[in-house]
Design brief:
Number of helices: 4
Mean pLDDT: 84
Low-confidence stretches: 43-47
Shape: rod-shaped
Order of helices and strands: EHEHHEHE
Strand order of the largest sheet: 2-3-1-4
Number of strands: 4
Largest sheet: 4 strands, antiparallel
Radius of gyration: 29 Å
Helix content: 40-55%
Structural class: alpha+beta
Length: about 150
């Protein structure tokens, strides 16, 4: 009888295999296979953090508010008045905050923020007697197998 199970790539796989060997299953009856992940075509428009543009927008709006207040305050002393200088300050503040945040995210934090890569799964194939199926299955489930089947 063949028992086939899948695991996430973790230390639990090694522990389960050690327990199975201590139970008396020889190494030549246990086989592990590393599965390949599906490799998607990389999308260059995809960011490693999907909220990057949203964060830049929020920072842009915050700096826009600050610059607008400063523009309104200075507008009482300048020629065009507080409303025009408030709008100019808001536009300049938004552009400053947005582009400065995007620059920091793309250039300076490029190596810090990385997309978490999913490790490939492992398939474990065990050949054993039918009487030991429940015992082996219990060990596999105990060590967090994703699925267990028999053939």
């Amino acid at each position: 009888m063949l028992i086939i199970s899948t695991f996430e790539h973790s230390i639990e796989v090694e522990e389960a295999l050690a327990v199975l060997e201590r139970m008396g299953l020889p190494r030549n009856e246990i086989m592990t296979i590393m599965m390949d992940n599906y490799m998607e075509i990389p999308d260059h428009n995809y960011n490693s953090n999907p909220n990057k543009k949203m964060l830049a927008f929020e920072v842009g709006m915050a700096t826009s508010t600050g610059f607008a207040v400063i523009g309104i305050s200075l507008g009482f002393m300048l020629y065009l008045g507080p409303i025009i200088w408030g709008v100019i300050g808001a536009i300049c503040g938004f552009m400053t905050g947005y582009y400065l945040t995007r620059f920091i995210q793309t250039k300076l934090l490029k190596h810090v923020i990385r997309k978490k890569e999913r490790l490939p799964e492992l398939a474990v194939i065990i050949q054993c007697q039918e009487e030991r199926f429940q015992e082996v299955k219990h060990v596999l489930w105990e060590y967090q197998a994703l699925s267990v089947g028999k053939f």
